[in-house]
Amino acid sequence: DQQVKQNSPSLSVQEGRISILNCDYTNSMFDYFLWYKKYPAEGPTFLISISSIKDKNEDGRFTVFLNKSAKHLSLHIVPSQPGDSAVYFCAASPNTGNQFYFGTGTSLTVIP
Amino acid sequence: DTAVSQTPKYLVTQMGNDKSIKCEQNLGHDTMYWYKQDSKKFLKIMFSYNNKELIINETVPNRFSPKSPDKAHLNLHINSLELGDSAVYFCASSQREAAEAFFGQGTRLTVV
């Protein structure tokens, strides 16, 4: 039973354009969300997070948006660069919990 | 200077064997985890230790036994390996429970 879903397994974007990666969750108790980036043969690397008291968090080219009513979050990368090509995982944690539930990832390819 | 290191990176072994994967973190974190990424790329927590105490033990066969000799180490021992155990196993650590985690590079286990 997957509580965090990334329905797009892959995404291709032209360099310089915006990349939008989406994530949906089912558990209304989730209140802390993270995005991780993963290159082949490496472990996931933490990218950006957001707590449920916010609807937006920005860090450089990366912005995460949270829509609690829709149980949806998205990661925007602008402008996209070839080095952003990787698999992106979203993860969520409940306010009473001590672990994260991960989505299955979206493979982003940024075309030069 | 690797923050979370796990060995070996690749492990090929026969069914029925017993094997161990070692993990060490030099970040001074209190919490360590083992995750399994299966063939569908689903990243799922197996175990979580906080200050050497087992916090999470998800539905994992008891052939899998974690051992935490100290806060900086969390090893995974697997008995009587089965074909279905083939996966990538990631070790991770975080400053506290449900905080962003730092992952090791993963161990690709292949059971033949």
Q: Could you provide a short overview of the structure?
A:
Chain A has 112 residues and is mainly β. Helices cover 0% and strands 56% of the residues of chain A. The radius of gyration of chain A is 13 Å and the shape is globular.
Explain the overall architecture.
The complex is a heterodimer of chains A (112) and B (112). Chain A is mostly beta strands. Helix content of chain A is 0%, strand content 56%. In chain A, strand 6 (56-59) and strand 7 form a beta hairpin. Chain B has strands at 4-7, 10-13, 19-25, 31-37, 43-50, 53-57, 64-70, 73-78, 87-94, 102-103, 107-111. The interface between A and B is medium-sized, with 21 and 24 residues.
What attributes characterize this protein structure?
A: 112 residues, 5-stranded antiparallel β-sheet, 56% strand, B: 112 residues, mainly beta, 7-stranded mixed β-sheet, globular
SSE blueprint:
The complex is a heterodimer of chains A (112) and B (112).
Chain A: E1 4-5, E2 10-14, E3 19-25, E4 30-38, E5 45-51, E6 56-59, E7 62-67, E8 72-77, E9 86-94, E10 101-102, E11 106-111
Parallel strand pairs in A: 2-11
Antiparallel strand pairs in A: 1-3, 3-8, 4-5, 4-9, 6-7, 7-8, 9-10, 9-11
Chain B: E1 4-7, E2 10-13, E3 19-25, E4 31-37, E5 43-50, E6 53-57, E7 64-70, E8 73-78, E9 87-94, E10 102-103, E11 107-111
Parallel strand pairs in B: 2-11
Antiparallel strand pairs in B: 1-3, 3-8, 4-5, 4-9, 5-6, 7-8, 9-10, 9-11
Question: What is the helix/strand order of chain A?
Answer: EEEEEEEEEEE
Oligomer: heterodimer
Q: Sketch the major β-sheet of chain B.
A: 7 strands, mixed
N-to-C span of chain A: 38 Å
Helix content of chain B: under 10%
Per DSSP, the total helix count of chain B is 0
Mean of the pLDDT scores of chain A? Answer: 94
Mass-distribution shape of chain A: globular
Give the N-to-C terminal Cα separation of chain B: 34 Å
Fraction of residues in β-strands of chain B? over 45%
List low-confidence stretches of chain A: none
Question: Rg of chain A to the nearest angstrom?
Answer: 13 Å
pLDDT averaged over residues of chain B: 91
Order of helices and strands of chain B: EEEEEEEEEEE
What is the C-alpha radius of gyration of chain B, as a whole number of Å?
A: 13 Å
